[in-house]
Description:
It comes from Scytalopus superciliaris. It is found in: Cell membrane. Its main location: membrane. Residues 16-101, 102-206, 215-312, 313-350 form the Cadherin domain. It is a single chain. The protein is mainly β. It folds into 4 domains: 9-90, Immunoglobulin-like (Sandwich); 100-197, Cadherins (Immunoglobulin-like, Sandwich); 205-303, Cadherins (Immunoglobulin-like, Sandwich); 307-349, Cadherins (Immunoglobulin-like, Sandwich). It is built from 1 helix and 25 strands. The strands form 8 sheets. Strands 8-15-14-11 form a 4-stranded mixed beta sheet, with no helix packed on it. A 4-stranded antiparallel beta sheet has the order 16-18-21-20, with no helix packed on it. A hairpin with a 7-residue loop joins strand 5 (66-74) and strand 6.
Amino acid sequence: IGEWITPGTRFPLEMASDADVGSNSQLTYQLTSNPSFSLAVEEIPGGKKQPLLVLENPLDREKQSSFELVLTAVDGGEPVKSGTLQVRINVTDANDNPPVFGKRLYEARVAENLPAGSLVLRVQATDADTGSNGRVFYSFGNVPNIVSALFTVNSESGEVRTAGPLDFEDKSEYSFVLVAKDGGGLTDHCEVQIDVTDENDNTPEIIILSLFSPVPEDASVGTVVALLNVDDADSGENGEVSCELSGEAPLSIVASSGGSYKVLVLAKALDREEAAFHELVLRASDGGDPARTGTARIRVTVLDANDNAPVFSQAEYTVRVPEDVPLGSVLVTVMATDEDEGLNGDVKYS
Length: 350
């Protein structure tokens, strides 16, 4: 009997037969007491009685899927004789139960850069019906293209797996709806929340915003030489960057209040005559494990200042000449040098 059958419906049962005659063959029927069923008897042509099983209350296969009753036929003789018939009633399923997810919200945390096909989570919906009515299939709801490009859902197992590389720096969380649908078309929905955790997959980047070169050698200590932007796309410790200068350049790093901008300033006085340029390497390392390091090379040229006086090769020149030396005769050649360059080092005599 289908669980959708309405109360009052009658089902014929097998009639009993008795080989006696007269009152010895007059049969009456009895049925095991059950609130869901009753017994009715209908007179049929020939004086026989047809036992009928009457449905009294609505059936629910999910509460009780079968019934065991006993139909007894009793004759009118003395002593009474009877016969019994076992009646087994199987309740067939109607698709009267939708799938039901175990949770309204499924959450997962996964690391970025997982290989395609990695398991993210598994959803599960149950259906109290049987057969195709109780078989559940899973699918995406109305989701953006980016979700269907990065994730897949197995229609039978409910497993959600990665279909493409996840990038924390591109998007750190995804929220979408999954649908469970049974064979009869009934559905349920759940929400999936996936948080992507950061991996140290980005190297610190150093951008030289401005470089003031050449720098006058008489520039004062603290003069700004370069403005830099140091950035790491990772988050947390993976994105925390520390900087250092290699070499013995007369420069130091000053961090801005935000931390992403760095300023190179003069740490001590310059001397072009000692070094006409300075080459240094700025190294930026993040706090990941293992750490990633980015570098930038900077060349600073020193501009000459007139900080050196000409110096004669001798402090005193002594010359002996005859008194009749002709006019215009060269008496002595003096020489002075200047360590500066350009006009600052161009020596004239008087």
